[in-house]
Design brief:
It is a single chain. This protein is mainly alpha-helical and 97 residues long. Helix content is 95%, strand content 0%. The protein has one helix at residues 5-96. The longest helix is centred in the middle third of the chain and has 92 residues, at 5-96. The N and C termini lie far apart (143 Å).
């Protein structure tokens, strides 16, 4: 019994096909990973732009709130001075009468 040439190469052919399938699967995964990385990179760029905008707006808001706080302190201080002035004025008026 002489083995036919095709049966002698059958195991080798099966290994080649298995390797071909593995390589094709690896290439497909690599392409998927590349697509995922490109998506992540795009998200990163968008997040960086959003972060820059957030920083600018938060600094602007911080300045605005600082000046509102200063304005409130000045108003409270003026109110206290007016109240003290009224109390001193009443006290002098009562003392002189």
């Amino acid at each position: 019994m002489n083995p036919s040439p095709s049966s002698a190469f059958a195991p080798l052919h099966a290994k080649v096909e298995a390797t071909r399938a593995t390589v094709a699967d690896s290439i497909e995964r690599a392409l998927e990973n590349t697509a995922k990385l490109e998506h992540i990179e795009a998200q990163s760029v968008q997040l960086e732009a959003t972060t820059s905008t957030f920083r600018k707006e938060s600094a602007s808001l911080q300045r605005k709130l600082f000046w509102k706080n200063v304005q409130m302190k000045v108003a409270i201080g003026a109110g206290i001075l007016m109240l003290l002035g009224a109390i001193v004025g009443v006290a002098f008026a009562m003392a002189s009468s």
